[in-house]
Design goal:
With 424 residues, the chain is of the alpha+beta class. It has helices spanning 2-39, 44-59, 84-87, 142-189, 238-256, 262-277, 352-355, 367-377, 382-397, and strands spanning 63-70, 73-80, 102-103, 117-123, 126-134, 200-207, 215-221, 226-234, 283-291, 296-302, 308-311, 314-317, 321-322, 337-340, 344-350, 406-414.
């Protein structure tokens, strides 16, 4: 009898070894399947389905919830044997306490009480997944199963994380290409060769934020001795602002060449902008028309920072006009400003990025500082004035960066009889 018992015991050990060997072979096959699926770029949903099927049918897991990090949020990507109302409960605040494989004991949360084990997955020191496992019977080889579940969960979670990071990289590259295209588009829209004539001179400073901004300036010279110049600030940044700027520039040139009165021009320009933006975006805008034969400056300020006019040594704010463009289908009222110019005059127009500039103490470049600079330097040529202004800005801001786009358009005007009129 003792010999028969020993034989039975030996057969039982052989059967146990065969089962263990079969399980190991099964695990190797599944690892191979999942690795091949990852190499074949199977979708995240496909990987989750493989994971769920393997745990349920071949490992015998009765309860499971897999949480995956998606950007800064967590989502339950797969589950087994858990009611929907429990899965709807929030357990994210419990995640930080699980830094390694843990038994779930005496949990005070109804969802966590469904499980026996929690397995955290970390990638580059950051948690990327948590899998909660439950429903094991006491006679099962729980240790070996949990070890393999840990391995396969790590492979799946890291693959999903790599997909997410790769997708983010592609998106960043796409945005970078779009920004480069938008920046190139803006460079084509912004004038580079500024005019210098016997009666006037223009000079500009253009500093788009991160390569693409919402600032716009332009000028057009006409054969009858008139020049139109403008500055605008388009709400928003990036590609959307660049596209709106391109549309705005096209409408500006089309409408200004109709040679209508300034108030009619502004109404038509507002209509064209509103048709595109539907009131969702707006443009602050300043436009001036200088008539060299009459030495008169006519202008409209559409909600823009009031430009500074120095006329015969006195400072004036050019604030007559109307509300911003694009917000309303119809502009309620437009007031056209008109200023006769004498001797040597200068118009300094700019966008709000200039006065938003801060120094290292947190003080802003306020308008009074700007006005003082204008009083002391308006006798310079337009280009020399702008160089002095940039030097002053660099000293003022110190180590601070420019917080926004900013544009400066300086127009020097010399009326007949002024000594500098014939020197241009």
């Amino acid at each position: 009898m003792s010999g028969f018992s020993e034989l039975r015991k030996g057969l039982s050990n052989i059967e146990a070894l065969e089962r263990e060997l079969n399980l190991k072979q099964l695990q190797i096959n599944r690892l191979l399947n999942i690795t091949q699926a990852i190499n074949n770029n199977v979708s995240a949903e496909g990987l989750f389905n493989m994971y769920k099927s393997f745990l349920s049918w071949e490992i015998g897991v009765k309860k499971m919830a897999l949480y995956i990090r998606e950007e800064e949020a967590w989502a339950c990507a797969s589950s087994i044997g858990i009611k929907e109302e429990l899965l709807a409960l929030d357990i994210r605040k419990y995640f930080e306490k699980y830094t390694r494989l843990n038994n779930v004991e005496e949990a005070d949360h109804p969802l966590i009480r469904e499980f026996d084990v929690v397995i955290p997955v970390r990638h580059k020191e950051h948690p990327i997944a948590y899998v909660f496992i439950g429903g094991f019977s006491e006679e099962e080889d729980m240790y070996n199963k949990v070890q393999f579940i840990t391995t396969i969960t790590n492979i799946i979670a890291v693959a999903i994380e790599n997909k997410r990071l790769f997708k983010r990289q592609l998106e960043q590259e796409r945005l970078k290409r779009e920004m480069e295209l938008a920046s190139e588009m803006q460079r084509m829209l912004i004038p580079t060769n500024m005019p210098s004539r016997p009666g006037y001179e223009l000079a500009s400073i253009y500093k788009p934020h991160y390569g693409v901004g919402g600032d716009y300036f332009d000028f057009i010279e006409f054969d009858d001795g008139k020049i139109v110049f403008c500055v605008g600030d388009i709400s928003g940044k990036g590609v959307a602002a660049a596209l709106l700027m391109a549309n705005f520039q096209a409408n500006f040139h089309t409408l200004i060449n109709k040679r209508t009165a300034l108030d009619t021009f502004i109404r038509d320009l507002n209509t064209s902008v509103n048709l595109i933006t539907q009131g969702e975006r707006f443009i602050t805008f300043f436009i001036a028309e200088y008539d060299t034969s009459r030495q008169a400056l006519r202008y409209v300020n559409a909600g823009h920072n009031p430009p500074v006019l120095v006329n015969d040594g006195e400072l004036h704010m050019l604030n007559k006009g109307c509300t911003i463009l694009g917000s309303f289908p119809e502009l309620p009222e437009i007031e056209v400003g008109c200023v006769p110019l004498e001797g040597e005059a200068m118009v300094l127009s700019f966008t709000d990025g200039l006065t938003d500039l801060q120094n290292e103490s947190g003080d802003y470049l306020n308008e009074e500082m700007l006005y003082s600079f204008v009083r002391n330097n308006y006798k310079l040529s337009a280009s020399a004035f702008n160089r002095q202004l940039m030097d002053r800005l660099e000293v003022f801001k110190g180590g601070k960066s420019y917080p926004d786009d900013f544009t400066v358009l300086t127009c020097k005007i010399f009326t007949p009889g002024n000594d500098k009129y014939t020197q241009r």
